[in-house]
Specification:
alpha/beta, 196 residues, four-stranded mixed beta sheet, three-stranded parallel beta sheet, 8 helices, globular
């Protein structure tokens, strides 16, 4: 692979970029981004890897990807800094709680994350949301996680069936059709957002 690396040094507008994206970001931006990137840099191959932020951070640290779009916490930033990886906060991402419209908390439009301390959660596998919840709600919170999934659609459908609570990006929920949102109630947080 030394020959490919030498060519990339001689011609920096060729070669490949290994990009890591979370599933929500990938679904939202990939089609437009791929087209725009290909138009601007036709000689650069774009390889995209999908995963949760924790997996993507590990891939960055182990140099398996060149760029990652991840949800970041203070701990994440310190971990990246300790591994000499540069980062830039691009925007804040707002998260919301999602419950069945029959859940007792469905009467609320907004609340503090602390009001969910006694709820049962279903979360995305190896997500930054889990890390932040553990920081905010303590290690006891770990016992409240009933399931981890690799599909946001699976998590969403559990709540239609009346199971526990999840936390999802508000953008993801806003992009769902009215049919997909049927039976769900979204609760805004007063104190829970991340940088991306």
């Amino acid at each position: 692979d030394a020959e490919n690396q030498a060519e990339e040094i001689r011609n920096p507008l060729s070669g490949q970029v290994r990009l890591g994206l979370g599933p929500i970001t990938a679904a939202r931006v990939l089609p437009t981004f791929f087209k725009h990137f290909a138009d601007l840099y036709p000689q650069i191959k774009l390889n995209v890897f999908q995963g949760g932020s924790i997996d993507l951070i590990d891939m960055l640290i182990n140099r398996k990807i060149d760029v990652g779009v991840i949800t970041a916490s203070d701990n994440t930033r310190n971990q990246l800094k300790d591994n000499n990886i540069a980062w830039k906060d691009v925007f804040k991402i707002k998260y919301v709680a999602v419950v069945s419209d029959k859940h007792p908390l469905a009467l609320k439009e907004s609340t503090s994350i602390k009001n969910f301390a006694n709820e049962t959660f279903f979360l995305y596998h190896k997500s930054m949301v889990r890390e932040i919840l553990l920081t905010n709600l303590g290690e006891e919170f770990n016992k409240k996680i009933s399931g981890s999934f690799d599909s946001y659609d699976t998590i969403r459908d559990l709540f239609k069936a009346g199971m526990g609570v999840t936390i999802l990006a508000e953008r993801y929920m806003n992009n769902l059709s009215s049919t997909d949102r049927e039976g769900l109630h979204i609760i805004q947080f007063q104190d829970f957002e991340f940088s991306l």
